[in-house]
Each structure stands twice: as structure tokens, then as C-alpha cells.
Design brief:
Elements (H helix, E strand, L loop, with lengths): L6 H5 L13 E5 L2 E5 L7 H18 L11 E5 L1 H12 L6 E5 L6 H7 L2 H4 L3 E6 L7 H12 L5 E6 L7 H20 L3
Parallel strand pairs: 3-4, 4-5, 5-6
Antiparallel strand pairs: 1-2
Helix pairs in contact: 2-3, 4-6
Length: 189
């Protein structure tokens, strides 16, 4: 499985280095083998922290190929959104931004109270469907509002959709990625 790799054709961001990660754990699905970042509740906490640390290690290793973690934008769907947010808002060094699609914020109060100044200004785009039958819209919206209280660059967009990606969002993702890139250039990154 290639996760969100199919999006690269729609985003048309050939000027960006792109790295697509599969979650570390096998996950059987009706469609064949899938992957999971963490087990389902109530066993999810350890897996969330473990996977966020794995992603953080990948970010740290970017320097070996001449790239910087501080130029990375994390992009995840569902469990990948949870891990993208957890990684960006709990790691020791910064990332350029986060796109979190149809996920949730794990322990929003903990993250809100533990973020450093740079993490609080990290641009974040969260999208979620009103009809999401996997993760409740209102719960995710409330979690986003907790973060928004200390993160002025967090944008939460609710829309009419289930637990998937719709065309309307793809333009938002591209615009967000380009805006983060322009801001980095302005700041001399």
C-alpha cells in the first residue's frame, strides 16, 4: 500500500521532495494487507507514542541526505493524521507544517500545555467530515479548538463528507503546502 502517494499526481508539487511512509504494523483489511500506526482503543497510547517517535527518527535522519526536518510538512489521513499531529507537536525540533485529514488530536490538553513557542506557531490544516462514521466530527472539532487556543495558525475545516478525501480538500492541501513553502523562503529557510 502506498497510503497518500496517489495524491502527488493531483497536488502537482514536483518542486518538493516527497517521502511517503507506511505505518509500521500490518493490518488486515477486506481489501488485502493494510498498515496501522497503532492498535485500536484501549491499547492505542503506547502505539501512538511509538509511531510518533519512529516518524521523528525519520525526520532526524533527513540530514543524511541534505534535507532539514524543519523544512518538512507532515501530512496524514486518519491514524496518519493523529501521528502527524503528535509528532509535530511533541518532538524536540520543529517542522514546517502539518496537514491532518479525518483524524483526531490525542490528548489535546497535554499537547497544548507541553508545546514550545515554535510549535505553537506551526501552521496546521485539519479537515474532517460532518458525516464521518469512524471518528466523530464534534470530538475532533473540540480537540482542534483546544489547540487553537494556543495555536493561531491552526485552521480547522469541517465539510460534508464521510471518512475519506474529497476533491475540494485537494486544492486546500496544495494551497497550504505552497503557503508554508513561501513562508519558509521569506524567513530564509
Amino acid at each position: 500500500m502506498n497510503g497518500l502517494m496517489w495524491l502527488r499526481h493531483y497536488l502537482d508539487l514536483s518542486e518538493f521532495h516527497q517521502l511517503y511512509l507506511n505505518a509500521p504494523d500490518s493490518w488486515p483489511t477486506p481489501y488485502g494487507k493494510g498498515y496501522s500506526w497503532y492498535p485500536m482503543k484501549p491499547d492505542h497510547k503506547t502505539g501512538i507514542f511509538r509511531s510518533a517517535e519512529l516518524v521523528s527518527q525519520v525526520l532526524d535522519s533527513l540530514s543524511q541526505i541534505g534535507l532539514k526536518a524543519s523544512d518538512a510538512i507532515l501530512f496524514g489521513f486518519s491514524q496518519g493524521a493523529v501521528i502527524s499531529l503528535e509528532t509535530a507537536l511533541s518532538r524536540r525540533s520543529d517542522v514546517l507544517g502539518v496537514i491532518a485529514i479525518s483524524g483526531f488530536v490525542f490528548e489535546a490538553e497535554r499537547l497544548k500545555n507541553s508545546m514550545n513557542t515554535n510549535q505553537k506557531i506551526t501552521p496546521v490544516l485539519m479537515t474532517h467530515g460532518f458525516q464521518d462514521s469512524v471518528l466523530d466530527y464534534e470530538i475532533t472539532k473540540n480537540q482542534a479548538e483546544i489547540l487553537k487556543s494556543v495555536m493561531p495558525n491552526l485552521r480547522f475545516e469541517g465539510m460534508s463528507k464521510e471518512h475519506h478525501i474529497v476533491n475540494q480538500e485537494i486544492d486546500w492541501y496544495r494551497d497550504f503546502l505552497l503557503a508554508c513553502h513561501r513562508e519558509a523562503l521569506r524567513n530564509g529557510k
